[in-house]
Amino acid sequence: MGHLWDEPYHVVVEVENPRCKVLRELDYGGVKQFKVTDVRGSVTGLTRHLVELSSDQVEKMRKGRLKLLVSSHLVENASTWIESEGCDVCNTILSQGAFLISGRVLQNHNFIYSFITPGFKAYKNIISTLEEKGCKVKVLRLWRFESRKGTLTRKQEKALWLALKAGFFEYPRKVNTVELSQLIGLSPPALSEILRRGIRRLLEQYFETKNS
Questions:
Q1: Ramachandran category for residue 45: left, alpha or beta (phi over 0 → left; psi -120 to 50 → alpha)
Q2: SS3 string of the chain?
Q3: Contacts of 133 (CB under 8 A, 6+ apart)
Q4: In this structure, CATH architecture of domain 154-211
């Protein structure tokens, strides 16, 4: 605890991943197109995928051999956790301390993965490990966190950048304060204070500018 990631990177890659266990299970249930919005490790050692499905797809799943762990139904779709032993891609990303922002299937077993790594070394390790495992990897985009040296301190800026990328401000949240603090190496109270002070600075600047 007590540190933020030194040099976080936001990475988007396309990977040919025919061994995805969740893809196989969904295909067995008649679901051909789906979007993975989160991948997490669990205390059981298994990997959990949060998958967005339409109402019709959920019904197909119920008739198949998949077990829904958690479902949150929206107007037109549902987000469902599916637990499996994971695959080379997901396990490789998680093993480097990175976290997945989203993943979606294209066609012919090709996936687009968007994730955050704690540094350039972790990014390179993920790519090289996947290639060593025989995966075809194409890096589509690569962003490095860069401080703008403005209203926020560097620590506040980095914490807010990571929170935004990780889905902390989305509804429903993709990551909560405890999970985010564990990912970036701060205690929950320390992270909450950094976020609070950073948001206050931004609001103060915004309203001062508007009133001037």
A1: left
A2: CCCCCCCCEEEEEEEECCCCHHHHHHHHCCCCCCEEEEEEECCCCCEEEEEEEEHHHHHHHHHCCCCCCCEEECCCEEEEEEEECCCHHHHHHHHCCCEEEEEEECCCCEEEEEEEECCHHHHHHHHHHHHHCCCEEEEEEEEECCCCCCCCCHHHHHHHHHHHHHCCCCCCCCCCHHHHHHHHCCCHHHHHHHHHHHHHHHHHHHHHHHHC
A3: 88, 92
A4: Orthogonal Bundle (1.10)
Tokens for 46, please give them: 């298994």
104-154: pLDDT as tens digits: 877 767 889 999 998 999 999 999 999 999 999 999 999 999 888 789 999
Residue for token digits 């298994």?
A: 46
* Cα atoms found within 13 Å of the Cα of residue 126, Cβ hemisphere only: 33
Kindly give the interhelix angle for 188-211 and 177-184, rounded to the nearest 10 degrees. 100
Whole-model pTM?
0.78
Give per-residue pLDDT as tens, 33-52: 777 777 776 656 677 777 87
Token digits of residue 80 = 């469902």
Measured in whole angstroms, the distance separating CA 97 from the mean position of its chain's CA atoms is 12
Q: Residue ranges of the domains in the chain?
A: 9-144, 154-211
Token readout for 49 is 């995928």
Sorting pLDDT into bands at 50, 70 and 90, what band is 74?
Answer: very low
